[in-house]
Amino acid sequence: MELTINPKYPSVDDLRKRAMVKMPKFAFEYLDGGCNEDINLNKNRTDLQKIELMPQYLSKFEKSEMKTELFGQTYDAPFGISPIGLQGLMWPNSSEILAKSAKKHNIPFILSTVTTSSIERIAEITEGKSWFQLYHPTEETVKRDLLDRAAAAGTDVLVILADVPTFGYRPRDVRNGLAMPPSMSIKNIIEVMRKPDWALQTLIHGQPSFKTLEKYMPKGLNLKKLGEFMDATFSGRLNEDRIASLRDQWKGKLVIKGVVSEEDAQRAINLGIDGIIVSNHGGRQLDAGQSSIVAMTSLAEKFGHQTKIMVDSGLRGGPDIARAMASGAEFTFMGRSFMYGVGALGKKGGDHTISLMKKEFSAYLAPSMIVGILYLFAICLTFFKFSMLTGCPPAELLVIVMIIPAMFSLPFSRISSSNLLRSKLPLNG
User: Given this model, what pLDDT does residue 136 score?
Assistant: First the structure.
């Protein structure tokens, strides 16, 4: 796949700055902000940036490979597009733009229940290769209908949401009168007039609406009413009975997004889930919580051998993907970076941002580590010196002693570049 990068925007920060110029303030602040005081939003970034990778440059290097197997599917890179609510509000038709790019670049695209394209439309674009994130419905009939629609569309993986037990409090959105469609206060009208490209694309594609939920919800909800509707209709508070019911009803792969504690992870594994996306909803729900990378590192160490451990929240580009995988993640997801790309470059934003991620991450697929070889050599040298000085241990024992550390060390020296960052790269921080 040829990587197409606009040289005017060679970083995610460049895309963010351009998106801020092109998007109305109410849309950009919804995308860019967290909840309450943005403490958890900022912590996601700072905790990731504390992780340091230790390079080993003087090693034999053959080639790098980003392809990653996940749930029986081989993807071209170890990252995907997170579920993003209200996508069409932030940039018109953005969910379809990103779904097309994900299909083209062979990475997973997760459709949110509260985004602005339908399950059926995204399935058509991705040829049934998309994932679907389910806000757990309180009504059994709604849940069954959504599951049936997802299954009929060929959805590969069902992601159930755990980290939205209630509607998050986001002061910016309250000030902006955010709604679907957006509340046209004088302030917002002025903002739209100042963003002609966004306004034109909205005219072309129509006012955004919750396409997947249209059949279940009343029309014309403001932010307050939307919150009330979501609280009444979709309960994010999962329990063991609800997970067990979904496990029984859903025949494909089942993933829980938003698990951050060891207790919840163990409960989920006991119920037969196939993977966990460690997430704090991009810092948009619990301002006083841990960062996602801190929680993920702990869960990967304890449960990585029992289930797939993935992560989102706070990741922005290739270096963060490397940091997360070096900390134990098997796969990563990002949301804001891709929306910055679409906000900056419109229909070209998906291809550009995915290409940028691949380009950045490829720099971290460095030569294979030689830690194991050096470690083995040091042990052997020490024992040989000891044997020469003392006449012991006997040769047979020396051979055995050398073989044992070799068995543990050799895997480190033979790590393929595609798996290098996933588990073995030395860390500081």
Answer: 83
